[in-house]
Amino acid sequence: DDETPSIVVHPTHKISKINDNIYGGFTEHMGRCIYGGIYDSGNPRSDENGFRKDVIEAMKDINVPVVRYPGGNFVATYHWQDGIGPKEHRPKRPELAWLGIETNEFGTDEFMKWCEVVGTEPYLCLNFGTGTLDEALGWLEYCNSKQDTHYANLRRKNGREEPYNVKYWALGNECWGPWQVAQLTKEDYAKKAYQWAKALKLLDPTITLTLCGETGYSSWDYYVLKECVKWDVHGLSGDNTKSLIDMHSIHIYTADKEHVVNATAPRAAERAIEMAMSLIDLARIENKVPESVPRQTICFDEWNVWDPVRAPGELGAEEKYTLSDALAVSVFLNAFIRQSASMGMANIAQSVNVISPLMTSKDGILKQTTWYPLLLFSKYMRGHTIALSVRSPEYTGRTNPAWIRNTIATPYLDCSATISDDGWVSLAVVNVHETQDYSVSLEGVAKGKEVHVYTVGGGDVNDVNTTEVEKVKVLESTWNGEGESEFTFKKASLTVLRWKA
Ligand code: AHR
């Protein structure tokens, strides 16, 4: 009947290609992310480089495609040259973002090595606080140049002959934030970003540059896009299909005390993506950017659930995640899949120990509730986004942020679907309802095929994982898509259904 929730999957209706980089990570010199997280020299769980083997294994499990480094707010006073060369000569510095001491024991060459071991691409963020353009150009030369020049030779001297070919670079981090050591106005930022982008692309036209955005829909976003979404107007690289900037960043952290509000809050990220893309289009029109210049995409380079008040630890960063938070992470990922046409990259903040699904201790690693949606999405939700028709009961209460209710409905069943290059269809359904299972009429599931079912959660929304008990994990089963047409999505759960088209 009309009231039965239903999902119709349209495997032949491809909407857009999914960039694998939406499953990116982020490692900042903050709290225990680098030291004691990915790097734990002397620990029996570390390899000969001092890299934690259990962390490397986890990164490989989710096949993390790209990892952002070294911040975050940290980067605003970071001088990359402090972190290269013989370790005994590296200076210790006061660190102004998190008010610690940076030993520089881990720096560029260590991070590049870690990326190689993990099998991931580095994404470096430039210092727009105390850093200079000269330093930024030096870093790019150190990482990417093949020439017989100073910084390229310094890299060789430090033991690395071949360039690292770092493709992704960000023009600063949250430069608009009052917490920045050197906060910028939008006018100052846009001017600086434009100049740096020109110079960086002259040195290496193959790189991809991310402009520092805010929420995606602020006057900062509007202004900096208008000033910087330009093509190679000066013909500097002699190629008018080249863009000055390639991606626009958005950062959104969500958290709420009330479960449904918490789990659905990431839908604001979806609206933010849509709004930022409109600002990009507007800037392209105003600046007469030729169509031959690829449309800029969104780089959602910090996203997660974060409530610094509830999180223990000095920086309010060692969050303990509940099942409710795992559903919020699932809703974020669904939004990235639904918006894949606009998504160039996304990076969960952060990869280890700091607001992270993975927590290390001296003698082990804990996979929090939020780890499992990330694992399922990264494993199965790749390829192309496909069309879905969803009829879902709706939540009508308070939302976070409040304006989201005026713009989009909040369904209890939050869905997305993909088809992989080898023809596997995956349907992700998050039932955010705290107490209600939903029996859903499913159409479009291949007849006569066995459907693989992966479920996360289904219990109490306050469930957490501890070293003793893993309450929230992936449970596997199968379902016969031919015999039945209704599938029950359990309360407070993420379900991924998979079948060969
Ligand atoms: O990810 C933690 C911090 O949150 C980052 O350093 C900063 O960019 C953001 O404010």
Distinct small molecules bound, one entry per kind: alpha-L-arabinofuranose
N- and C-termini, Cα separation: 27 Å
**Would you identify the regions where 5 or more consecutive residues have pLDDT less than 50?**
none
**Share of residues in helices:** 10-25%
- What is the CATH third-level topology name of the largest domain? TIM Barrel
CATH architecture heading of the largest domain: Alpha-Beta Barrel
The total count of helices amounts to 11
How large is the radius of gyration?
Answer: 23 Å
The largest sheet is: 9 strands, mixed
Strand percentage: 25-35%
Number of domains: 2
What class would the helix/strand composition place it in? alpha/beta
Mean pLDDT: 94
Q: Which strand order spans the largest sheet, edge to edge or round the barrel? A: 21-20-23-18-17-14-1-19-22
Total count of strands: 23
Give the class-level CATH name of the largest domain. Answer: Alpha Beta
Q: Note the overall shape.
A: globular
CATH-level-4 superfamily name of the largest domain: Glycosidases
Pick out its properties:
eight-stranded parallel sheet, alpha/beta, TIM Barrel, 501 residues, binds alpha-L-arabinofuranose, Immunoglobulin-like
